[in-house]
Amino acid sequence: MFVVAPLLAPEAAGEAGLPVDVTPLADLKRRRLVIYDNLQDLEFEYKAGKLAPGDYQALRRDYTAEAAQLMATSQDLEVATAEDSWIEREVAVRRARRNALPAPDYTCPKCGFENPLPVKFCGECGARIRPAKKQG
Amino acid sequence: MPYVVAILMATGAFFASITFFVANPFGELFMASTAGPRPFQPADGNGLNPLLQYHSMVIHPPMLYLGYVGFAVPFAFAMAALITRQLGDNWIRTTRRWTMVPWMFLGTGILLGGRWAYSVLGWGGYWGWDPVENASLLPWLAGTAFLHSVMIQEKRGMLKVWNVVLIITTFFLCIFGTFLTRSGIVSSVHAFAQSNIGPFFAVFLGIVLLFSVSLLFLRVEFLKSENKLDSVVSRESGFLFNNWILLAAVFAVLWGTIFPIISKAVQGVTVTVGAPFFNKVAVPIGLLLLFLTGAGPLLAWRKTSFQSLRRNFTLPLAAAVVVGVALFLSGVRHFYAWMSLFLCAFVAVSILQEFFKGARTRQKTGGENFLRAIYNLTMRNTRRYGGYVVHLGIVLLFVGFAGQAFQAKTKGLMQDGDELRVKNYVLRGISVVSGDTPNYTFQKIRLAVSKDGQPLGTLEPDRRFYKASQQPTSHVAIRSSLAEDVYAVLAGQDPDTGKAIVEVFVNPLVAWVWIGGFVTFLGTLLAMVPSRVERQMAEMRQAQEAGVGVSDAL
Amino acid sequence: MRSRLALVSLFAFATLALGAGRARAVDPPPTVDRIGERVMCLCGCVAILNHCPHQNCSMHEEMRATIQKAIAEGKDENAILQLLVQQYGVKVLAAPPAQGFDLAAWLLPGLGLAVGLALVVMIVRRWRKPGEIPATAAGGHDVDPKLLAAVEEEMKTSGMGIRK
Fold first, then answer.
1. B301: in domain
2. Does B379 reside within a domain?
3. What does DSSP assign to residue A85?
């Protein structure tokens, strides 16, 4: 049963047809890196005289535009992620308030970073976090 | 990873169960008796078949074997990636690297086999289009197609489904090759391996095909193309054409190989599909492929304008035309051979041009000296320049193949003082010597070779009679040079005159086949060295993965 | 456009030239060696007659003698092959005759080549971006300069791409 499990599993992590070992942001980043690599090759081939100037300009513009496109998607996604985490935090805060408990504070004792989510380790420096009760 | 191992173990389990239950090699040591099978101790054997007592025959089978077996690894990675949906760019990189290794071994194995046939069988050639030879060529061709089209996936994020199809095809052809050899459904020189395990292989092949193809269908949405084709004249379409030719070659060879079975099924007559068929069919395909070997790398990614084409094609084409005219004037009239050499010149110059242009650019920008620039250029992108070296090796192979068209041969009865002429060579019999070794008795004729009156030393072909197996074989004597081989066989003794029957071949350019094979081998090794770009990318990736991981989690 | 024409014509030249290679001059007179390349040795070695690896192979000599005799009688190459087929069966021919069902053996590789080409052409057409010049629409001036700056920055930090 264990063996066939992944075959039968529903589209759990299926983020818009993305493979499971890739997060959307990482995928966008990877594709940009590939484009930069291609751009570097393009530059080299142009310098080596393999490409006519017209081709070089056009291809360079295309690649850059593609990278910019990916960058835009990436930034939108980051904004969305930030919003998501804000929502999560709000939910956590309100849930805590509803349960008449003081909202836990996840400020890192080591670096002082205010972690937005309930975490066991600081998202900035990785130090262990024991939530302190927030005053008030 | 667990699934990679699972797939490999399933394949392993199949082969293990074949040897345990169906074709137990130790089963040969049991005798049927009235009280059931009874073990017996065999007497001393006859030793290895005398034909196989040759040095490259020691390396040839393990090389081929590594090739066949090795292709199971990329297949396992592909299947595991499909099963677990881990279809990012990790699996394709691993798969690509793991394809180069068996590809190299299989190619080397095929060539060593050819080398053996050339120096032992005594008919002056190295490739006979025997079904089992074809069976080894098929996965090599399919693997070549994969190694090319995988580049489109890495560079442009396209052809993802197609690449999986190619991996499946390659693995399938490996098992199919084993099936052809072992089942004996086609008659072959390699019939030594015949046994009754055919049906089991057929079932296994069916399972492999069903499993992999249905898995591919289940996961096809994860393999979406990231880009579109910009232009018909581009590196991408160059690779598409390369794949077309390679797979057409696979199809043609496969079809010819299994046609006797089909014919038997349809019209009840077993026909033979041998060398004349394959030479007619495969030579044009091979030449088209050779053309693409040179033209492909001259095309730029995405799109190439006429101006760019002119920049890159002018020199190679001009060089090829010069060579072509020179060949024609020097009396080369065999069309295919001429075409092959013409294209060889085109491809070789185009590759050298790549190296030269790249190095000059580095010289200009980095101020390196020429040799240093070539070295850095190659090490910066080992895959590309290793690939070019492989292409160069293929060119040399084709130079060697073309030489086959100018083979000259003659046969004569000889004893001391008799002369045999072939082309501008004269062979004169000096003496016939007999001798005895623990393994065999032999009789050899010493021939003085001279070319245009210039003495070139002696050739000593011999005939051996192996004591243990009571089999005669002949041992070819070859005088090899870059231009041509003189190849002498002592074929037997004429019963009437008692003279030795000597066959002499002059095989032009054969040495280039072995040199080309060696260059191909070196080029593949070079392509496997991790390049600077790759290391840089890997470091980036690690740094990125750490960074992106955190920001995604938030 | 011109580039495509150039490449296509180059390719067409190669293909045509290969096709032209099949048109041969008149066949030279038959010899045992020539015919020996076109038939199989039937001693069980599964090799071309000229390539039979067996020493003192009886079949081999017998077949060569048959061919020799037919040549002496003045038969041409096809007639001799015909004779051998009558004597030993179709399997003596090293390549199937181009007639009847066996024609399929010869036609299918070409057909495969053609179908493959058709497929490639179809795929190329399908994959083409709709319209010839979407590049300028997407690229050029209407890319947000802020994005471009971000891209340049990332290129610099990644150590790749075109350096200014």
1. no
2. no
3. H
Question: What value does the mean pLDDT take over residues A107-124?
Answer: 80
Tell me how far the alpha carbon of residue C1 is from its chain's centroid: 29
Query: What is the dihedral sign for C-alpha C153, C154, C160, C161?
Result: negative
Q: Please tell me the distance in Å from B475's CA to the nearest CA on chain A.
A: 52
A contacts of B90 (beta carbons < 8 Å): 21
Q: How far is C141 from chain A (nearest CA, A)?
A: 10
Please tell me the total count of domains within chain B: 2
Q: B150 with B92: CB under 8 angstroms?
A: yes
In this prediction, residue B387 carries a pLDDT of 92
Pairing assessment for the beta strands A132-133 and B38-39 based on DSSP bridges: unpaired
CATH number reported for the structural domain that contains residue B501 in this entry: 2.60.98
Most confident of B140-149, B263-272, C25-34, C88-97: B140-149
B394 in a structural domain:
no
Tell me if B87 and A37 make a contact (CB, 8 A cut-off).
no
Query: Does C6 lie at the interface with A, CB-CB under 8 angstroms?
Result: no
Cα separation, B527 vs B531, in Å, equals: 8
Q: Which member of B251, B262, B463 has the closest CB to residue C112?
A: B251
Locate A129 and state its tokens.
Answer: 């976090």
pTM above 0.90, yes or no: no
User: Would residue B174 count as lying in a domain?
Assistant: yes
Q: What pLDDT, on a 0 to 100 scale, did the predictor assign at position B145? A: 94
Q: Which residues form the domain of B182?
A: 1-12+51-289
For residue B194, give the amino acid letter. Q
Any chains having at least 3 CB pairs less than 8 A from chain B are A, C
Q: What is the pLDDT of residues B480-494, one digit of tens each?
A: 889 889 999 888 888
The 10s digit of each residue's pLDDT in B402-428 is 998 888 888 888 888 888 888 889 999
For A33-85, the pLDDT digits (tens) are 888 888 888 888 888 878 888 888 888 888 888 888 888 888 888 888 888 88
Q: Which residue from B483, B500, B494 is spatially nearest to B427, judged by alpha carbons?
A: B500
